[in-house]
Amino acid sequence: MYSLLITFFLVALVFSFLCSLWEAVLLSITPSYARVMIRKGGTTGRRLQQFKENVDRPLAAILSLNTAAHTIGAVGVGAQASIIWAESNPLITSVAMPFSMTLGILIFSEIIPKTIGANHWQKLAPFTVSSLVVVIALLYPLVWMSQFITQWLKRDKSQPVFSHSEFLALAEIGVEEGHVGPHHPKIISNLLNLDKTVARDIMTPRPVVMAASEAMTVEAFYESNKNLPFSRIIMTSEQDQDAVVGYFLKDTLLEFLVHGRGHEPLKTICHDIISVHERFKLSDLINNFIDKREHIALVVDEFGNMAGIVTLEDCIEKLMDTEILDETDLNTNMRELARKRWLKRRGGPGITSFEDLEKD
To answer: pTM of the full predicted structure?
Structure first.
């Protein structure tokens, strides 16, 4: 009788210990570790792929086995304790054994295994995955029933596993632990918000865009702009200065001068320019630059008029959250420069702002 009591007690503890260990390991496996193992292939990788596609199945197997172990252990220990001490010492049956059972399960099948699993999950992952495959096969009817109930009660599956805030929280934890640079969380935030940023947010506004008429000669433009800080210059139509016909490269301009072709008009070195709407998403804009091997685009408003220009450098600056400057850059913020010029012109005759009207 004593042997049966001890057997029931150990069965409950051992199986409960394993269930808690497997659960801690399974829930500690990071998406990045799972992705690496899946790419490596092998048995562990294939099984992790299956668990990743249906994580409810291994969790249902753990729950079923753990519940069965607790139930059988408690009933078996209680029955044997009643046979042994029911008449001679009922206090043991009613108080001592339940207390011992609860304490044993708390320490040896909850605290210890879950601590071990959380701290050593990488070493225990292959063992856990292999063991759960066997448990799922043995308890398939119970697993199927648990999955059915879980799927019925489960919330919307289309919701993402990680939200933007969770990604940023992970990045901030990485900074604190020294695994990630201090500027990386901001870069990650900008990456996650690519679809929320549009061309208008990062463009160089029209008032500060440098442009030249296509009829102007190469030499005349150079003489007027010897200290040109830009590598690409917008070109306008000879008949309409508001109509953009393309752009030209500073390097090509200098090449023409070196070869004695300074008398030729700028339209000789004109390149076609792509145009995008001012509400064009930054993610699509970057893809367009890469696909078409371009570095500059014309930004137009809803009426097709020029609103400004945007470059690949502007996109990178937005992602990196910093201005890319060289020794020739005099202004770090072209949008601020455009606003200052507008405020200066506003003082001219006939120009009144909404703020001025409100004051009146």
So the answer is: 0.49
